[in-house]
């Protein structure tokens, strides 16, 4: 008996109550403290990740957001099998990552923007051949994959140069190529555009978008550049102090944590900031006491009334209404903390 209801694929990543706790040795100052530390150490424990549960479907591109020290990189390392979890269960493409089975390693890759795998003094193509040998990729297939990825990354003619001769953007692209030569199903990307200029960032984003569409790859991406997240991700996971505080759509995040519209005003003459604060939450200011260019956050339900009042009370040269920048929404999420996020 057939059914018209589509069958949802099994999640490719499943984490349940995932935790990681690090013991940190406590050492007192001085000789006595050193001797005591040598013979009988005491520890305090840091919970880097606490009871985190989520699922990711095949082909999803998910943003992973949080302040420095929130536990993003620790989570990625557990997903990639580099760190053993302290608690909970974890499955990635049907495998327990910490076992580091060859069948698992062939289906994932981990790219860290501040780390490199290419050999500095050799041409990038030589490092790629080493990776191809590790993954037992036949020569013909290797040449085809390198040609295809080099075209997507605009690296033609660059792979035979020593890595140290490449620009930072070209080097990051070559690192991506090396990480993807075995065509993994899952990409764990930790700050892949770190330190790149605007053009190089845009090129890397476009490549990741094309790679996801062409091969149906699943991507979990961390970045401090919100342009990476907004360009690539419809869904985001937000963590703070090792705890998952939001799992959902990027637009829903904006609606939930910033139920405001941003009103930008250009005034004919400076207006005292104390007067402007009556209309909404002041987000920018020029001179300490007054300003001609103003950004206000106004609650959506009060928007029409507030705009009408602004036009009636002030000499307005220009007025625009937009959604708040997602960067400021994320900062508000971190500032409000877990209780506000779960309310």
Can you describe this structure?
With 343 residues, the protein is of the alpha/beta class. The chain folds into two domains: 239 residues, Rossmann fold (3-Layer(aba) Sandwich), CATH 3.40.50; 64 residues, Alpha-Beta Plaits, CATH 3.30.70. The protein is 37% helix and 30% strand. The chain contains twelve helices and 13 strands. A six-stranded mixed sheet has the order 5-6-7-3-8-9, with helices on both faces. A hairpin with a 2-residue loop joins strand 8 and strand 9. The longest helix has 18 residues. The protein is globular and about 70 Å long.
Helices and strands, with pairings:
Layout: E1 13-26, H1 30-39, E2 42-56, E3 61-65, H2 72-79, E4 87-92, H3 102-105, E5 108-112, H4 124-134, H5 139-153, H6 168-180, E6 186-190, H7 198-215, E7 218-222, H8 226-232, E8 235-240, E9 243-249, H9 250-257, E10 260-272, H10 273-276, E11 281-284, E12 290-299, H11 303-313, E13 316-322, H12 326-342
Parallel strand pairs: 3-7, 3-8, 5-6, 6-7
Antiparallel strand pairs: 1-2, 1-4, 8-9, 10-12, 10-13, 11-12
Helix pairs in contact: 4-6, 5-6
Q: What are the secondary-structure elements, in order, as H or E?
A: EHEEHEHEHHHEHEHEEHEHEEHEH
Main beta-sheet annotation: 6 strands, mixed
Give the CATH level 1 class of the largest domain. Answer: Alpha Beta
Low-confidence stretches: 338-343
How many separate structural domains? 2
Label the CATH architecture of the largest domain.
3-Layer(aba) Sandwich
CATH superfamily of the largest domain: P-loop containing nucleotide triphosphate hydrolases
**Rg over C-alpha atoms, rounded to the nearest angstrom:** 25 Å
Sequence of strands across the biggest β-sheet: 5-6-7-3-8-9
| Percent of residues in beta strands | 25-35%
> Which whole number gives the mean pLDDT?
86
Count all strands and give the number.
13
Q: Quickly give the structural class.
A: alpha/beta
Distance between the termini: 44 Å
Helix content estimate: 25-40%
**What would you call the shape?**
globular
